[in-house]
Design goal:
By secondary structure, the protein is α+β, with helices and mostly antiparallel strands. The chain contains eleven helices and eleven strands. It folds into two domains: 8-133, 3-Layer(aba) Sandwich (NADH Oxidase); 149-191 and 237-323, 3-Layer(aba) Sandwich (NADH Oxidase), CATH 3.40.109.10. The protein has a five-stranded mixed beta sheet with strand order 3-4-2-1-11, covered by helices on one side. It has a four-stranded antiparallel beta sheet with strand order 5-8-10-9, sandwiched between helices. Strands 6-7 form a two-stranded parallel sheet. A hairpin with an 8-residue loop joins strand 3 (94-100) and strand 4 (109-118).
Length: 346
């Protein structure tokens, strides 16, 4: 059995078990899959290795029932892990063979993934792989530097390859309209006690040794300030203050982005998650950072207005801001052993 690391961020490229069994190779590759982003860093995925196949499952025990009642962000998060896995497989010289939703009677089974035929990795394959450990969610203000049009267009192509559309919003008027929707979402969510309680469960002080959720340092909080933050988030209506902060962040970001799909179901959510991960890795390769502002999507009446803002046809799945800045620390990840089972007899 390949060594399973307690901290997946410690995985080293050169440790790939070239002479190991297929199962050992798949176990190693999972260290890269779990470095993918997920809603509030819930890491809602489970893996099973059965013979030569990785089975990817959604872990609904990590669902956000108030924030994400349909499970849309849950499935998208599994899509980012799936894309990370595909990138790692290509980097090590195999064609990934992926079958999504292989059992219609088991909606929690997201995908089968196998190592396909050997293939020479391209420069683009290597660059996306190297971006896995550089990608971060950047929640602080960005530098006032525009994002080149050529790079934005490349990101749009990546999204399109995975079956989604990336809308780039740079016009000041449209940015203000989107920023207003984000701020309105903050006010609605901040006033909702059940929403605040659920969010507070995934916010952690810096000094607490947990492997999921959002630590205080990721939001620019000191060790002392982060101790009180879960209590404040849970107890008080912070909507108006957060609305003003997010409005300014949005309006002053070099670019706002909306990722959309033509339908709104689990198949499209999974595609959106893979498209999201593809553009995040390409952005990291360009030295760009992204953070998420999904408030207008998490509130149905605001989502309808956002749909109009992007043209009235596609379903918006995620809202982002993009720009340059200093690289933040990585957020924690659970040990592989906590989310993996192995059946050696298949």
């Amino acid at each position: 059995m390949a060594d399973l690391l307690n901290n997946p961020w410690d995985v080293a490229e050169e440790d790939f078990p070239w002479n190991g069994s297929t199962s050992e190779k798949l176990q190693f590759l999972l260290h890269y899959a779990v470095l993918a982003p997920s809603g509030h860093n819930t890491q809602p995925w489970l893996f099973r290795i059965a013979g030569d196949t990785i089975e990817l499952y959604v872990d609904r025990s990590r669902a956000l029932e108030k924030i994400d009642p349909q499970g849309r962000e849950l499935i998208m998060s599994c899509g980012t892990a799936l894309y990370h896995l595909r990138v790692a497989i290509r980097h090590y010289g195999y064609e990934p063979v992926v079958q999504t939703f292989p059992d219609l009677d088991d909606p929690d089974l997201i995908a089968f993934v196998r190592l396909g035929r050997p293939r020479a990795a391209t420069l683009e394959d290597h660059r996306r792989f190297m971006a896995i450990k550089r990608r971060r969610t950047h929640r602080m203000p960005f530098d006032p530097v525009p994002v080149p049009d050529a790079e934005l267009q490349a990101l749009q192509r990546v999204a399109q390859e995975e079956g989604a559309t990336l809308h780039v919003i740079q016009d000041p008027d449209r940015k203000k309209r989107l920023a207003a929707l984000i701020a309105e979402g903050d006010r609605i969510q901040g006033a909702n006690k059940e929403f605040r309680r659920e969010l507070a469960r995934w916010i952690h002080p810096n000094l607490v040794r947990v492997r999921d959720g959002i630590p205080g340092y990721a939001r620019g909080l000191s060790d002392l300030r982060s101790l009180t933050d879960p209590i404040l988030v849970r107890t008080f209506d912070w909507g108006q203050e957060q609305a003003e902060q997010d409005r300014l962040l949005s309006e002053n970001s070099p670019a706002l982005l909306v990722l959309s799909t033509t339908a709104d179901n689990a198949v499209e959510w999974l595609a959106a998650g893979q498209a999201l991960d593809g553009l995040l890795l390409m952005a990291a390769d360009y030295g760009l950072f992204v953070s998420f502002l999904n408030q207008p999507i998490e509130i149905p009446e605001l989502r309808a207005r956002l749909m109009d803002l992007i043209g009235g046809r596609d379903f918006p799945q995620i809202v982002m801001r993009m720009g340059y800045g200093e690289a933040p620390r990585e957020t924690p990840r659970r040990p592989i052993g906590d989310m993996l089972s192995i059946n050696r007899y298949l």
